[in-house]
């Protein structure tokens, strides 16, 4: 299975490089301006991209992308994708950006995500965290202490590498929200999710009986936007990100979604 996954990822990397070379001399920006919009690939999770009670898509990344689109004179559309297929979606042209709490870092096999995409400037601080039933969370103080327990993480996420390191008995599911549902149902012992998601959901509402394992400290991470390799749209968006950072618009959106302390100051400086 591991050999198959390694071969599959290598094939995807070769395809990514080939597509990037094929696109040399072409302008993503001009094509998107002609089309009048760009498409963001997302998964649904609070507080980045999620639906409110009226069925409207809201969240920090949703409003961030909308603010960038307004500055560029474009519309933005959002397409829900399988996170494990994000690079294929991007390189096929069905989406133009991976804009959904996308961690700059590596895949679970150790391959740098920068091999697959060009990243924007970093804009939010994050980390992974371990979530368990509240009555058990304090008992665990290291990843090693989770050995033998059954865990879950979103397939293709930064959390998958952590879950794999913690326990051989883990499963990959199709969303971060699904890991919390599995945990609540008792089918797993721990979930690995973004701390920004955990801060928004864990210990509240439907997940009142869950808690973060605060004794397990994991490495800091950052969020950035992923664009096609070699795309000139990356620089265009970066210019707008700097402007939104300087004029306070990003801080306004971050405060609205409880992310003010996670926002990176002076982006691009």
Describe the structure.
Residues 1-25 have low confidence and may be disordered. With 269 residues, the protein is of the alpha/beta class. It has helices at residues 2-22, 28-35, 60-72, 86-92, 158-166, 176-185, 195-201, 233-246, 249-256, and strands at 37-42, 50-51, 57-58, 75-80, 97-98, 118-119, 124-133, 151-154, 170-173, 190-194, 210-212, 220-223, 226-227. The strands form 4 sheets. Strands 7, 8, 9, 10, 11 and 12 form a 6-stranded mixed sheet that branches. It folds into 2 domains: 2-123 and 224-256, 3-Layer(aba) Sandwich (D-Maltodextrin-Binding Protein, domain 2), CATH 3.40.190; 127-220, 3-Layer(aba) Sandwich (D-Maltodextrin-Binding Protein, domain 2). The longest helix has 21 residues, at 2-22. The termini are far apart. It has 9 helices and 13 strands.
Outline the secondary-structure elements.
Blueprint: H1 2-22, H2 28-35, E1 37-42, E2 50-51, E3 57-58, H3 60-72, E4 75-80, H4 86-92, E5 97-98, E6 118-119, E7 124-133, E8 151-154, H5 158-166, E9 170-173, H6 176-185, E10 190-194, H7 195-201, E11 210-212, E12 220-223, E13 226-227, H8 233-246, H9 249-256
Parallel strand pairs: 1-4, 1-5, 8-9, 8-10
Antiparallel strand pairs: 2-3, 6-13, 7-10, 7-11, 7-12
